[in-house]
Amino acid sequence: MKALILAGGKPARLQAAGLGVPKPLVPVVNRPVVSLILDLLQEVGISQVGVVVDDREGPVAAWPGWRRRPGMRFLFLEQSLPLGSAHAVKVAQGFLEEGPFLVVAGDCLLAGEGGLRPLLEEYRAARPAAAALLARVEDAAGFWAAEVSGDRVARLTEKPQRSRAGPVLAGAYVLDERVFAAIDAIRPSARGELELASALQRLIDDGLAVLAVPFRGFWRDVGRPEAILEANLHFLDRLTPEVRGEVTRSRLEGRV
Questions:
Q1: Pick from 175, 202, 215: which is nearest to 92 by CA?
Q2: Is pLDDT above 60 for 15?
Q3: Going by DSSP bridges, is the β-strand pair 130-137/210-215 parallel, antiparallel, or unpaired?
Q4: Which residues, other chains included, contact 137 with Cβ-Cβ below 8 Å and sequence gap of 6+?
Q5: What predicted TM-score, i.e. pTM, was given to this entire model?
Q6: Checking CA distances to 115, which of 2, 102, 164, 251 falls within 20 to 30 Å?
Q7: Can you tell me the distance from the alpha carbon of 145 to that of 125, in angstroms, rounded to the nearest whole number?
Q8: What are the tens digits of pLDDT across the range 110-153?
């Protein structure tokens, strides 16, 4: 199975917060998010990876960490205009070809509970048109909220106006070639983008199954500045305290 990392787009919220880096390069415990995503892909045995970037000469494509994964092969695909996540998948159609493939958003941070393995295992067992990883949040506003019926996604709603807890799209999907026809059939959102969630909704409207796979580990969308702090705290809290050397004229308090 091939994988596609969606690493294009403009990090408007991060720039507004003074973090002038693309979302995939946001550091979490001194490692960019994309490095953590590559760990997840290697854990499930995926070695062929397409990466959609806004510029093949830009900072994401120039990140030296790509060359430090000798068992993996990368193809950089350019999405010169920010036309949306579904458009990014369409850009990669020639690379993905037929058969199921994995799509991961470049601002998707997953930790624990098997990573991407449950998503792949449940997809392979059911063989639906698509499978979507869902994370539960206390406030679905600002996300694509998912209504679930049994083990399927019944409806997707963008940024529901009423604050409510529930499952939202977590930025990881397994899709097959039927998604390309769904992308061709959708219209741009109010912000002028073709949304992958809209393509999933089109599959549902056409009577095709979109499997709902709950993720019970730690998940954050690092396109949000507050989520970057939460992610760093999560990983720092799980480091083993260690002092290498002798501390003099100082006192250590707490976990160091």
A1: 175
A2: no
A3: parallel
A4: 143, 165, 166, 167, 168
A5: 0.91
A6: 164
A7: 25
A8: 999 999 999 999 999 999 999 999 999 998 888 999 999 999 99
- Would you place residue 163 in the very low, low, confident or very high pLDDT band (cuts 50, 70, 90)? confident
Q: Pull the structure tokens for residue 71.
A: 């068992």
pLDDT tens-digit readout, 218-253: 999 988 888 999 999 999 988 899 999 999 999 999
Distance CA 221, CA 170 (A): 8
Find the Cα–Cα–Cα–Cα dihedral 237, 25, 10, 59, rounded to 10°. 170
What span, in angstroms and rounded, lies between the C-alpha atoms of 167 and 137?
Answer: 6
What contacts 24+ positions apart, CB below 8 Å, involve 143-152?
143/168, 143/169, 143/221, 144/168, 144/169, 144/195, 144/197, 146/212, 148/212, 151/126, 151/211, 151/212, 152/128, 152/209, 152/210, 152/211, 152/212
